[in-house]
Amino acid sequence: MAHDPVLIRLKGGAADYNLDLGFIPKLVKVTVMSTDNPDTYRWFGEMMEDSAEAAAGSWEYGIKNTAGGAETYMATAATGISAYDGSKVPQVLVESPVPGKGLVKADVKDWAKSTSATGRSTTKVGTIVRPTTHNGYVYECTTTGTTNDTEGEPTWPTVPGDSVTETDGVVWTCREENVVANKGKGITLGGTLLESDKIVYVEAYREIRCEDIGDIG
């Protein structure tokens, strides 16, 4: 019998979302509200991700029930639900672009060639990268642009506040590398699931009774 349920209400957006629950649930039910009939999702936790059948059939990201009653296996993280372990996601502390906000946490990845880059605005810290050869600093995208997919890695400055501009306009500004550990755990809701501006209800269960009886034939 399921117990310790958590009910969370959020508003859909256009990107994958890490929902920090403090635990990785055994069962998740998601309802995406609509003016017509809602779509619902079920995900059986790491049991689904770890099963051999899921790996073979590409359905480890849950089951979707559409308004018409048809059920479909979710084959990608972007369309379904997956486990989120924040302790495995490196983050750094950087100065918030909002005056008076002090330091904020930001995800950081090693620099890679890309066809786009996300800049910073008055409300959102920009993309943070580290050089492929770590040098003790990170670099924040402070001017958006398109990263040249044929251009090599820039020559990174090593004085905080100094910047380097890529050929197609992306400006990376040097920051101190203050790495922090994000201990959060929970689930990642795929961006396709989180339809823009739709109200989404998430039911998460810490434990459920699960018995693998095996072949009873």
Descriptors:
2 domains, single chain, 17 strands, 217 residues, 5-stranded mixed sheet, mainly beta, 6-stranded antiparallel sheet
How would you explain this protein's 3D organization?
The chain is mainly β and 217 residues long. It folds into 2 domains: 3-85 and 184-207, no CATH class; 90-180, no CATH class. The longest helix is centred in the first third of the chain and has 6 residues, at 45-50. Residues 115-125 have low confidence and may be disordered. The radius of gyration is 21 Å and the shape is elongated. It is built from 2 helices and 17 strands. Helices cover 6% and strands 39% of the residues. The strands form 4 sheets. It has a 6-stranded antiparallel beta sheet, with no helix packed on it. The chain has helices at 45-50, 52-57, and strands at 3-11, 17-20, 27-32, 39-43, 63-65, 71-73, 81-85, 90-95, 103-107, 109-110, 128-130, 137-143, 163-165, 171-176, 178-181, 185-189, 199-207.
